[in-house]
Amino acid sequence: MIHDPVPNMLAQATELLEAEFGSLPAYETAINAPAIAEVLEATAHRLADNYPYFHPLYAGQMLKPPHPVARAAYALAMTVNPNNHARDGGRASTEMEIEAVRGIATMFGWTESSDSYLGHLTSSGTIANLEALWVAGQLAPGRRILGSTQAHYTHNRISAVLKLDYTSIPADHRGRMSMEALEAELRKGDVGTVVVTMGTTGVGAVDPLDEVLTLKERYGFRVHVDGAYGGYFRLIPEALEEPARRAYALTAKADSIVIDPHKHGLQPYGCGCVLFRDPGIGRFYKHDSPFTYFTSKQLHLGEISLECSRAGASAVALWATQMLLPLTLGGEFARGLARSRAAALELDRRLREDDRFQPLVAGAPALDIVVWKLNAENEDVTSALANRVFLACAERDLHLALVELPLAWFRPAGGTANGAAAETFTCLRSVLMKPEHEAWLDRIWERLSSAYVDVVGE
Ligand SMILES: *Cc1c(COP(=O)(O)O)cnc(C)c1O
């Protein structure tokens, strides 16, 4: 493994921060250093019981290591451990959160001034989506929420928590929401909000936001974009296929947007984000708690967030990361995303040329998730093989993932429409979300091939 640069960076920065508080009288905290060292030793051993998520050969689930600058900034913030509920709990980190969120809003095409939208960090994409649907329900009580069958399962569950009716719309053979099926539901006249997933968690499909916005003109409803995983692909339009490019170009027209900096944004877990186009929705968050410490007249993030205490360190880490890697078209961060995407296209290309495998017939991946089935005499054998190849890859330190997908997605056009087929089977799935995956593709392919030979033979 590569030498970890974070402890060195952190030591220097910690000295600087301590010097900033140098005028305070010295104080002592009793710590038992040998006992702590022993506990940390045990901790290190315990943590080895994990897949190596940080390594390029981990190409399974949606896991991307935090950037060293994010880890160092997060740990540095632990010296003061700010709470972004209120300015009194974290003055600097409140400002850093406002600035970092502005960077994200600007990426989605909302203006640089902070009063033309409302947004804040959350502890996850789940909570961010919860807030967006909560506001949707406040604005249109009793109206239904729609999302595709490939939308994250959290929407269905959150809707139940909020006592809003939720309806799933079928997806096409690439995992995108069917516009015909959507319009059929809209004609019923009781829809409040449509959830548009830009980057589905399963296969990375991008719902056609452009077409949903056209339907919005006719039927009138709120558009919520769930870009928890895929939001950052807004930064590489040139690397996307036309339908996805058209969708990403229109994110500024959404009513609310969710993105997870802890997925593609190089952040430690505990960092989601929700944005609202109309800052007026802030009125729904109003509370008059007698005990929160709102001593400053300026906006407190606790006044526009459902969560109360929140990690100021998350904001510090995100701010530092965006200082180093601004969210700009063509910037270094965007180039990292483009490399992930290139790795996915290359893996897809190799799978298409190899008759042992079959990726989705409807076309190449929209973002950086690749799914494929193993060719065999029938679907039961295919599923069993996928499980065995998955394990044989793991023995070679290549970690892939498994996913259940509709059979119809692998049939040539003319198969059952709308992915409605009940039959699913097990496929292999790889989320190639690290920039390093591109350089490691040969080694990933070698291991996949040799695992296949092990399981099936030459
Ligand atoms: C991951 C994900 C979520 C849930 O976010 P968490 O941060 O895991 O709570 C919601 N929607 C989509 C599209 C996701 O990929």
Bound molecules: pyridoxal-5'-phosphate
Number of helices: 13
Low-confidence stretches: 416-421
| Rounded radius of gyration (Å) | 23 Å
In the residues, how many domains can be counted? 2
Strand content: 5-15%
- The average pLDDT is 93
Task: Using the 3D structure, state the CATH architecture of the largest domain.
Answer: 3-Layer(aba) Sandwich
Q: Can you describe this structure?
A:
This protein is of the alpha/beta class and 458 residues long. The chain folds into two domains: 91-324, Type I PLP-dependent aspartate aminotransferase-like (Major domain) (Aspartate Aminotransferase, domain 2, 3-Layer(aba) Sandwich); 332-456, Alpha-Beta Complex (Aspartate Aminotransferase, domain 1). Helix content is 38%, strand content 13%. The chain contains 13 helices and eleven strands. The protein has helices at 6-20, 33-47, 68-77, 91-107, 125-139, 154-161, 179-186, 209-219, 242-248, 312-324, 332-352, 379-395, 441-456; strands at residues 118-122, 144-148, 166-169, 191-197, 222-227, 256-259, 272-276, 357-359, 369-374, 401-406, 424-431. The strands form two sheets. A seven-stranded mixed beta sheet has the order 1-7-6-5-4-2-3, sandwiched between helices. It has a four-stranded antiparallel beta sheet with strand order 8-9-11-10. Helix 9 links the parallel strand 5 (222-227) and strand 6 (256-259). Helix 3 (68-77) packs antiparallel against helix 10, helix 5 packs across helix 6 (154-161) and helix 12 (379-395) packs across helix 13 (441-456). The radius of gyration is 23 Å and the shape is globular. Residues 416-421 have low confidence and may be disordered. Pyridoxal-5'-phosphate binds next to helix 5. The site of pyridoxal-5'-phosphate has 13 residues, from helix 5.
